[in-house]
């Protein structure tokens, strides 16, 4: 069972691939993986490990940190500035 945060990350990765104008097959080729690799994580049938995640975001030219910040459960609050 996937959590809402996993579903959001999956959606962000699909959107990033499409924004880059890549098909699943083209992304997979750039990663040196079969097309089924991309299809499975995009459908939520498999999870990416951290190295795979960094590789995917690198090929897609998106910041891994920015994507992770979007799925943070409780984003850190800004600290009040000390005068």
TrEMBL record:
<dbReference type="Pfam" id="PF01381">
    <property type="entry name" value="HTH_3"/>
</dbReference>
<protein>
    <submittedName>
        <fullName>Transcriptional regulator</fullName>
    </submittedName>
</protein>
<dbReference type="InterPro" id="IPR001387">
    <property type="entry name" value="Cro/C1-type_HTH"/>
</dbReference>
<dbReference type="GO" id="GO:0003677">
    <property type="term" value="F:DNA binding"/>
</dbReference>
<dbReference type="InterPro" id="IPR010982">
    <property type="entry name" value="Lambda_DNA-bd_dom_sf"/>
</dbReference>
<feature type="domain" description="HTH cro/C1-type">
    <location>
        <begin position="13"/>
        <end position="67"/>
    </location>
</feature>
């Amino acid at each position: 069972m996937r959590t809402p945060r996993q579903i959001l990350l999956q959606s962000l990765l699909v959107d990033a691939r499409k924004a880059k104008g890549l098909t699943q097959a083209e992304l997979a080729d750039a990663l040196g993986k079969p097309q089924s690799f991309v299809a499975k994580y995009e459908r939520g049938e498999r999870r990416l490990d951290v190295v795979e995640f960094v590789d995917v975001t690198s090929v897609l030219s998106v910041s891994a940190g920015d994507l992770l910040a979007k799925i943070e459960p409780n984003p850190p609050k800004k600290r009040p500035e000390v005068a």
